[in-house]
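Cross-posted from the bioinformatics board.
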Amino acid sequence: MTRKESQQLGKGLAFLSPWLIGFLVFTLLPVALSLYYSFCDYSLLQSPAYIGTENYRQLAADPIFLKSLKNTLIYALMALPAGLMVSLGLAMLLNQKVPGQAAYRTIIFLPSLVPTVASAMLWLWLFNAKLGLINNLLDQAPFSWMISALNFVLGILHLPQIATPIGWLTDPLYAMPALALMSLWGVGHTVVIYLAGLQDVPGELLESAEIDGAGAWTRMRHVTLPMLSPVIFFNLIMGIIGTLQVFAVPYIMTQGNPARATYFFTMYLYDNAFRYLKMGYASAMAWIQLLIILALTAFAFWSSKRWVHYQGK
Amino acid sequence: MTKTSLSRRSRAEKWTATLALLLICVGFILPFVWMLSTSLKTLENAMTMPPEWWPSPMVPENYSAVLENKKLDFPLLAHNTLMVALLTVLGTTISSAIVAYGFAKIDFKGRGLLFGVMLATMMIPFPVVMVSLFTIFRWMGDNTPLQFLGTLRPLWLPAWFGSAFNIFLLRQFFMTIPDELSEAATVDGCSEWGIFRHIILPLSRSALVVVALFTFMGAWNDFLGPLVYIQHPGQYTLALGLQTFQSQHGGTQWNLLMAASLLVIMPIIILFFLAQKSFIQGIATTGMKG
């Protein structure tokens, strides 16, 4: 290494030093410690005692763990595709040059600014079975007609009918969809990312497709979506990481109830760590969570070769 | 295809889009309207069936009742939250900018590798470090004169060591500033720190504002962090306080709860309207650069 090179290295490390220290103390050390704890019996009151893979073995047979894992995956399967599609659809609508465009954009973005706890409070009130706005609206025309029609069809098919008022947060059947529905209110952030991506879709390309007789659907399917695929991919990755960690909303709104129907992975992890003081057990859960996120992200990257098109830059 | 049929079709598309947008926007805005309406009602009125949209009588006193509520102690919660948010913003903006400069403008061996490591840390979920960070802060409290657990420190201290996301954002921005500027300054005898401080930082105001805004919102919103580290109600943040306020009351006082929630939302909404452009641009760039 020349004198110049080592000088540069010194300067570089000096500027990086805040992050280097932070990385060692607040990331690398905790990650390493939590890996170690995951092989320990650690109650916080006593020092950790090594027990090998016992935590992981217990987890594999723990019905609550399996339930929380299943719930989390189901929630992700509901909320993630719905969120990606709704936000993409909204972005495409908001990209149309219609009067009042700026106002529409602001209105759809605003809910994503609402702090989690405040929006949990608001939706507790909206979902309230007896007094909530949603059930009261469903009680009135035209929504009441829709429910009657739906129940009629369900009756013919010999399926259980919808009983009103709907116990959005108290009925195991509805609690999870209710949380997914609520998450759609906050898609504004994703919409803005899509909108930015839509600006990069060349107008000439869409125009020439239109002159060639392509309708709105064909243009979207064969021009806009392929051009937008890197942005969809980005939102998918962020969505995977986010939805698999869902915590605050169900913790505040349902505490995991009814009958653990909304008891998610991070909630059980938190309870193990800070309610039952099973730090080793919680750490093992955290590592499983990390591995699941990594595996799903790796899978998304692998699949992206088939559907993500990068423009040559 | 003739020109008239083309324009007729695009006009039809425009009308459909407008109608759809109108309906959707009503859906998006209804919860806010309902929240505001409930917050201005008497409790009895809030629980009337079927619900009325216009509060009568109108009770704006609900807001002063929330602000003066002894159990909730809104001023204390707001003070704690502001403390954490401001210290976090200050710490993360300064430290992330310094580190981002190192990644963007200084060419040294191992830079690429370290940058890769930093990006990888963004994938680590908070629960992975949550438990051991707790034990680290406990150890630090036992072995240094400072206390950590049961204080607000664990919430803002890590921010002073840069955050990967913000470093990444600022680094991308610094890269767009031409190197000729710093080279000219070097010829004039300016030190590396001088270039950072007097050339790069002033040119990066917009990016720094984005980082500050997002960090402020993150701190204002954070629920899990305070839930883990804060033990005493005297240190509660707004997020924790609001949650306690709701769960404490046997029969929830929806009108007061909605007023309190709106008071928590308002600062963020005001901030948004003051800095709308930075918000939108910031979100757009993070999405595009990914």
